Automatic annotation (TrEMBL):
<dbReference type="InterPro" id="IPR029058">
    <property type="entry name" value="AB_hydrolase_fold"/>
</dbReference>
<keyword id="KW-0378">Hydrolase</keyword>
<feature type="signal peptide">
    <location>
        <begin position="1"/>
        <end position="38"/>
    </location>
</feature>
<keyword id="KW-0719">Serine esterase</keyword>
<comment type="similarity">
    <text>Belongs to the cutinase family.</text>
</comment>
<dbReference type="InterPro" id="IPR000675">
    <property type="entry name" value="Cutinase/axe"/>
</dbReference>
<keyword id="KW-0732">Signal</keyword>
<keyword id="KW-1015">Disulfide bond</keyword>
<dbReference type="Pfam" id="PF01083">
    <property type="entry name" value="Cutinase"/>
</dbReference>
<protein>
    <submittedName>
        <fullName>Cutinase</fullName>
        <ecNumber>3.1.1.74</ecNumber>
    </submittedName>
</protein>
<dbReference type="GO" id="GO:0050525">
    <property type="term" value="F:cutinase activity"/>
</dbReference>
Length: 266
C-alpha cells in the first residue's frame, strides 16, 4: 500500500504519516471530510472469511491480550488532593472483550498521559458485561456514572475524559443522557457534567440511528470527538468488519487523546 504524507501536525509539531482506512470524524459537532489514518484494517474480502463477527472480535482480543488490562494510569498519586488525579479517563470496552480498558481504551490511556506530561492521569475501566445482545450498555452507563460520582465527591477538581468503543460508546451515550436502544441506565447528574472535559468514542452504534452525539446531546457537542471508519458496520452500516477492529492501530487513538488533552482546563 502506498503511503501519502498529509500536511498536518500534532500539538507538539509531530507530522503524521497517514495511510489506509478512511474515517468519518465528528469533532466538536462538525463533520470533517473523510481522511486516511495510519495503518489499515485490510480489505472487506479479507474480513469476510469464515466465522461470525463476534468470533473475529474474540480472535482479535486474544491477539491483543496484553492490552486488555484493568485499571491503569499515568503518574500515581498527586493531583488536586491526596490520592486524586488531575485527569481521569473513564472508558468502556467493546462487545466480547474481557474486563478492562480493552484494545482501544488501554492505548488511549497511554496516549492521553503522554499528551499531558505535567499532569497526573489515571484511568478506570467501566465494569459491565459487554454482552453480545447489547443490553448491558445500560448497566454499564450506571457503573460509569456512579464511578464519576464517587470520584468527584472525593476529588472535586479532577477532570474526566469519558468514552468507549463499540458497545462501550453506547455506554457513554447513555451516561450523557442519550436514550439507549432497548436498554436504560443512570446518566451523569447535571451538577457534575462540568467536570467532564471531553468525550471520545469509537465505532458508536448511535450512527446507525443517523445521529451523532452533537445532535443527540448538544450540551456535549463542543467537547466530543467521534470516530467511525468507512465501512464499519457498527457505526456506519458498512460491511467491512475489519474496519471496526482498526481503531487501535489507524491513528485515531492518538487523535482522540490529542483532542481530549486540548479540552483539559488549566
Amino acid at each position: 500500500m502506498t503511503k501519502r504524507r498529509v500536511g498536518a501536525t500534532g500539538r507538539r509539531g509531530r507530522r503524521l504519516v497517514l495511510v489506509g482506512v478512511s474515517a468519518v470524524v465528528v469533532i466538536a459537532g462538525a463533520m470533517v471530510a473523510p481522511q486516511a489514518f495510519a495503518g489499515t484494517a485490510g480489505s472487506s474480502a479479507a474480513a469476510s472469511g469464515n466465522g461470525s463477527f463476534l468470533q473475529r472480535l474474540r480472535e482479535r482480543f486474544a491477539q491483543n491480550g496484553g492490552q486488555n488490562g484493568g485499571q491503569t494510569g499515568g503518574q500515581a498519586g498527586g493531583g488536586n488532593a491526596a490520592g486524586c488525579s488531575d485527569v481521569e479517563l473513564v472508558f468502556a470496552r467493546g462487545t466480547g472483550e474481557p474486563q478492562g480498558l480493552g484494545i482501544v481504551g488501554r492505548p488511549l490511556a497511554q496516549a492521553l498521559a503522554a499528551e499531558l506530561p505535567g499532569r497526573t492521569v489515571g484511568s478506570f475501566a467501566v465494569v459491565y458485561a459487554a454482552a453480545s445482545n447489547q443490553r448491558s450498555a445500560g448497566p454499564g452507563a450506571t457503573n460509569m456514572t456512579e464511578h464519576i460520582e464517587q470520584v468527584a465527591q472525593n476529588c472535586p477538581e479532577t477532570q474526566f475524559v469519558i468514552g468507549g468503543y463499540s458497545q462501550g460508546a453506547s455506554v457513554t451515550d447513555i451516561a450523557i443522557g442519550i436514550r439507549g436502544a432497548g436498554t436504560a441506565g443512570k446518566a451523569i447528574p447535571a451538577n457534575l457534567r462540568g467536570q467532564v472535559a471531553a468525550v471520545v468514542v469509537y465505532g458508536n452504534p448511535l450512527g446507525l440511528r443517523r445521529q451523532t452525539i452533537a445532535q443527540a446531546a448538544p450540551e456535549f457537542a463542543d467537547r466530543t470527538v467521534e470516530f467511525c471508519n468507512n465501512g464499519d458496520p457498527v457505526c456506519g452500516g458498512g460491511n467491512n468488519f475489519a474496519a471496526h477492529l482498526a481503531y487501535n492501530r489507524n491513528g485515531t487513538v492518538g487523535r482522540g487523546a490529542e483532542f481530549a488533552a486540548g479540552r483539559i482546563g488549566g
